Each structure stands twice: as C-alpha cells, then as structure tokens.
Amino acid sequence: MQVFDSGNVAAATSVKLARVQVVAAYPITPQTPLTEKLSQYVDSQVMDAEYVAVESEHSAMAVCIGASSAGARAFTATSSHGLLYMAEQLHWTAGARLPMVMCVVNRAVGAPFSIWNDQQDSISQRDCGWIQLYASDHQEILDTVIKAYRLSERICIPVMVCYDGYYLSHTYMPYRVPEQSAVDAFLPPYTYRHTLGPEKPTSLNTVTLPGGRTDIHGNFAPGYMELRESLDSEMKKAVAIYSEIDAEYLDIAGRGGDPIVQCYLCDDAEYVAVALGSMGRQLHDVADGLREEGIKIGVLSLAMFRPFPADILRAQLSGRKALIVFEKAFSPGQSGALRSELQAALYGEASQPELFNYILGLGGRSYSSVDFRSSIIESIQRKPGETGRCEEIGWIGLGR
Amino acid sequence: MRDKTIQIRWHGRGGQGAITAAKIFAHAAFGADYPGVVMAPSFGTERRGAPVEVSLKISKARINDLCPIENPDVVVVLDDSILRDADVCKGIKPEGLLVINTARGKDVYEGNGKELRLATADVTRLAEEAGLKRGIVNTGIIGALAKALPIVPLQTLLDAIATEFGKARGPANVEAARLSHEHTRME
To answer: By the 8 A CB rule, do B103 and B122 touch?
Structure first.
C-alpha cells in the first residue's frame, strides 16, 4: 500500500508493524507527532501495546530498560535535549546488552534554545554503545525501524534510527507500507535470553570489580573490561549481519540492497560527496547538475554511523581524488566527526583522497543545493596536494 | 537541476488550513500521475493568526530537494490581508503565477516591478455562498488554483476534498472549490 504522509507517521507505522509491546516516551519537538500517533494507536487498540506516559526522557529509557529486561519489545523516541537527558540510561542500555529501538528525530542542542534541525544530538552520543542508523527519506525510516528490531534482537545491542527533524519528520511524501503478514514473517516475536521475572529472580548488572574472577564452578567469569570488549567486537559484526537482514527484507518488501552506504554515480567518480541523512538525497540533484558540466562526481550517503563501516568506506573511497564531507554536527575545536573518522579509515591507504569538510544547517540555518554545488566546486578547484587539514572547517551559510 | 518540478508556495495564517489545502492538492496530484510529491509546512512553531508558509513540490520524477521553496513557480495566497504581513512573491520566478483570494481584482497586487501572471477569486464570499462558515477559504482556494494551474483535473481535486472532509462537511467544501474554480479570473 502506498501512502502520502509525514516522516513521523512513517516511523509510527513501522513501530505498529513491528508489534512493539511497550512504548514509553516524552513528547519533544520535532518528535511529538510520532509519539502522539503511537498513543492514538494504543488508545484505539490498533496497536496491542502498553503506552507509558512518563515524566521525562530519563524515565522513558528506564521504562524501556525494564520492559526489555522482562522480555517485551520496547520503543521510545526523542530529540535533542531529550536524548541528552537520557544519556546515562543510554550507556546503561548498551552495557546491559538490551535489544531496543529508538527514533532520534534530529534537532539542535542549546544553548541558545533552538527547536530546529541539525544532527548534533545523535552525533554527540556516538560513544554510548548504541548502533546508529540514519534514514534519508520516509521509506527508509519505515524500513529501517523494522530491520533495526531484527538487528537489535539478533546481537543484543540497542539501535538508534535517526532522521532529520522537519526535513523528514514534518515533510509529507509518498512511501510504501508492507503488509502486516510480511512483517510478521520477517520479524518474529521477541524472546530475550535472560528474561527477568518473578519466577526466576536474578540480579543483573551488579557491581563488577576491576579484575575478572572465577565463578562458583571455577570458570573465568568476564569482568567489566571483557564485557566492554565484547560490546565492541560484536557491534563490529553488525555491518555484516545488517546486510544479511537487509537481504531478507528485500525478499519480503522488494526494497533494500544497500543498507550501509548508498552510492550514486560513484563508479567512475573522481570526487565523492559524503553525508548522513536527508542531505545525501539532496546531493543526488547536485551531482546530476555537476555531471552535466563534465565534473565526475558521485555521492555516498552513509546510513550507518555506528558501527563505523570502515571496510566498506575504504573499498568505496580509496583512490578518489577528493571527498567533500557535509555535516550537520561538529566537535568544537576539531571538525565534523564523520570527516575525522573517514580520514582515520583511509589513513595508510596507498591512494588517499583529499578531504574537505563543510558544516551546515546548524540550528536550522537554511541551505540549498546551490550551497552544496559551490562548496564542491570550491573543493575541486583547490591545488593538488592542498588537502583540507583535519581541523579545517568550511562553514556554509554564516551571516545569512 | 530540477527545472521540471512545479514549486507551489502557499501563504496563509496559522489555523486557516493552508497545510490541509496543500495536502489535499498533493494527494490529488499524486493520484494524477505525479509520483514525485513533497509537501512541508514552514519549519518550526506556528501561532494561530500569524503568517505561515507551506512548500509543495510536484514532479513526474522523485523529488530529492526537501528544502523550503525559495523560488516558487506559483504562489497561493489564502487571503489578501497577508500581503501586509509577508512578502509573498519573494523569490518568485519570472512569469510566475500568483493565485490570490481577494475581492479587489487585479489592483490587489502591484507586482513590485515583477512580471507575474495573476489569478484572483473572491473565495471568502464564494465559500460562504457554498454554505461554509465565513472565513473558511482553504478548499475554495484549491478550486482557484486548479483553474489557474490546470495540472490536476478538477474532478480529482473535488473527490480528494470530499474524502478529506467526509459526509458531513464534504459537500459544502466541494461546492466552495467548484464555485471558486468557476469564478477565478486570469487578470
């Protein structure tokens, strides 16, 4: 079925299709219409779930931790300060290895107060142990949430599905909704391996001493550091596992095939523009225009930021003349996180591209295809060898 | 880059129904062989009565640029009082089309030196004649736009309006659009 609706409604639809059992959320712009829709679904019994109206995002995540520990499929969504207010619980969820999906409707972070879009909220949480996926349109929002549950429940790591506030959350566009029966076949009911319940009381995530210890059977029991190491090594497997899950989804929904990076006009491209979220989609138009002028440019839209798919990026990007990295988030005093990580991934490659970094759209500052175009032209006109230094930022739209 | 996209910017006031009107038009366009349709209200907060904008892009191809419209082909104004509060024709393309609800005819907009095509209809009066409460203009303006920009068949739009408003409110809203369509003048 094809519908014409907002990105927030696409997200709510996917949560319903995933047969989520517990929703705990606190409304915050621009996520609000998503949680409103879910509360309507639950209230009208379109969705058989418990909707817990909490007093804060910290509690929303705490409820989801409890629900997931007790074996229920849990969901929450937030933006900006709501995500940051959850920060302590985000680390806990990942450390406790609880499957869960959360939508982050990307919004700027104060001060000063801003309700508009950028991606500083989710990027600032890149180290909390959650997988981070980015959608570039409504179809991807819907499909990604459903696939994210499969991924999360398979490897017991929580997943953020991030999408741009307003550009996607409040914009209407057409997208396809799969049949419930197809989603049911793809996403079976959730069972957690250590379900918490009164019939089998358990202490979870108790104080763990710095060193490992032997258990009562005399076997080595992993300590804190072993658990951290396994979070890293198992999260890294998510790249391959998510690709397998996507291939299965392609069979049931007819969509997918490039879940980690989406390359457009990249085959013979000397230059590649790289971005997360809805910018990747817009860059297609920009590349079309530059191609007409004979500039060999392609676009790589990154749909997974954690784990960082370094192997795939090296394979796609080594040997290009230059990469132009567009970001809606940055680390003050350094540069965009994506730019830094791309350079790290390419370090040591025989043929490293030049790297140029542009920051745009902070706090909802307007930008257009013309800005992307002029930044790309500015980059490719730099002298060979005059690579952008790692801390160099090109600011788009300052003074506008 | 995307010249074939028709960019329609709607200007109304918070609570006046510009978003609903654009959504109905978008739905109908989507159903009338325009697979690329993107509609977005002005980003941010809205106050009742304050000027609001809605961006509607319509294309035969997928639309990738989700930014608010800066250079519209068409500007739709839900009532002429907004002209005092907003520069509705900002960025409009040469030979662009301005569709406006007004009782004043072509004098309503002097053009600011721009070469525009102007379509007017007294939607406020026509909608009242159709049986709507005074001030409900968002369905009437759809009829005016359909006359000035005939890309979607009128009947498709009337059907979309009937679906949106249902049995109770549908007929008067459909009639408002039909009457406005009939009485729209290209100035």
So the answer is: yes
Q: Which helix (H) or strand (E) holds A186?
A: helix A180-186
Chain B CB contacts of A369 under 8 Å are 1, 65, 67
Distance from CA of B9 to the nearest CA of A (A): 14
Radius of gyration of chain A (CA): 21
Tell me if B169 is assigned to some domain.
yes
Q: Dihedral of CA A180/A181/A185/A188: which sign?
A: positive
Residue B2: predicted pLDDT: 44
Query: Is the predicted ipTM greater than 0.85, yes or no?
Result: yes
The rounded mean pLDDT for chain A is: 96
CATH number for the domain including B26? 3.40.920.10
Pinpoint the alpha helices (H) of chain B: 18-31, 123-129, 138-148, 154-182
Segments forming the whole domain that contains residue A382:
261-395
Same domain assignment for residues A137 and A273: no
Decide: A330 and A336 in contact? Cβ < 8 Å: yes
Mean pLDDT, residues A228-234: 97
Determine the structural domain holding residue B72 and report its residue range: 6-186
As a whole number of angstroms, the distance between CA B71 and CA A324 comes to 26
How high is the pLDDT of residue B1?
Answer: 41
List the single residue in A29, A116, A284 with the smallest CB-CB distance to B64: A284
A4 and B26 in contact by Cβ < 8 A? yes
Give the number of domains in chain A.
Answer: 2
Going by the DSSP 8-state scheme, the letter that residue A48 receives in this structure is -
Q: Is A250 in a helix, a strand, or coil?
A: helix
Taking the C-alpha atoms of residue B120 and residue B144, their distance in angstroms, rounded to an integer, is: 8
**Domain at A327, CATH number:** 3.40.50.920
Is B112's pLDDT higher than 80?
no
Question: Residues 57-116, chain B: which have Cβ within 8 Å of A?
Answer: 63-68, 70
Asked if the C-beta of B35 comes within 8 angstroms of chain A's C-beta atoms, the answer is yes
Judgement on whether residues A16 and A103 belong to the same structural domain of the protein: yes
> Rounded to 5 degrees, what are φ and ψ at B158?
-65, -40
- Alpha carbon distance, N-terminus to C-terminus of chain A: 42
pLDDT score recorded for residue A11: 98
Exposure string for A262-300, b = 16+ CB within 10 A, e = fewer? bbbbbeebebbbbbbbbbbbbbbbbbbbbeeeebbbbbb
Count of domains forming chain B:
1
Q: Tell me if A229 is assigned to some domain.
A: no
> Please, what is the Cα angle at A17 between A14 and A21, to 5 degrees?
100
For CA atoms A292, A297, A303, A305, give the dihedral sign. Answer: negative
CA A164 to chain centre: 10
